[in-house]
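Probable membrane transporter protein
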Amino acid sequence: MRTLIVLALAGLGAQLVDGSLGMAYGVTSTTLLLAVGTNPAAASATVHLAEIGTTLASGAAHWRFGNVDWRVVGKIGVPGALGAFLGATVLSGLSTELAEPIMSVILLALGLYVLIRFTFTALPTPQLHKPLRRRFLSPLGLVAGFVDATGGGGWGPVGTPALLASGRMEPRKVIGSIDTSEFLVSVAASLGFLFGLGTAGIDAAWAAALLVGGLIAAPIAAWLVRHVPPRVLGSAVGGIIVITNIRTLLRSDWLDAAEAVVWTSYVLLYALWAAAIGYSVRQHLRSKREAEAAEPLEPADGDLATEPTSAG
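Structure:
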């Protein structure tokens, strides 16, 4: 029972982060299952089974708050489902340790770009609302779905920074569309794991516990995305991407950094991330004050000018 409560709380926290920042549910939940001794394939299968429910609830909540671009969902979600199914059935048994650092370098570069762009400049408008082409979204979905199935998470970490970096969507719509399309990815990955593994190693009770926590957090996260300023949201997402992928690189065989180096890096990264978010908040408030000052004052009802009348 204690394990189920811990998993439910982990599912709640993971979905709160995922629904607010567009990533981390799969990575967080899979990491926890691996920590308690579940093998990688079964951990990924259990998490994706829970994600069928959490992504459906998250997508519905994001749609309710106007955070979803359905054209993007279709163009990225269907290729993502194909990639997830292939990853689960064909390649889930292969080690991704060699590919993981390479992917982290790519994501780190995207994360730095997103963090710097949204921290030091306002939401870019020249490209905003321009349509994203299928030739960009389809390969992105295929790769993100493949990584998600083979790594136990990755749909958000791959898809969110790429869409943010395009500058063609508001951050809240990027997050809402990525979370909504993840439902297709979760269904396809679950079918792939059932086809390749059967039910061996999949703990339905653990999946249910993760699901319960995620269902509670989904509407809260969608509401947060609707109300957090885009500039601040972009800085928050960029920081998560940077910290997550630097952590992967520090732990990889490429660097194999000592514990002292790892923890010192964490302290510095979190301090810089907090400073970036603080700067974004201050700049947002400043821009808001300037916009309010520039608006013409509306006359009060009792101050309306009247036409002068002639005497007599």
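The radius of gyration is 22 Å.
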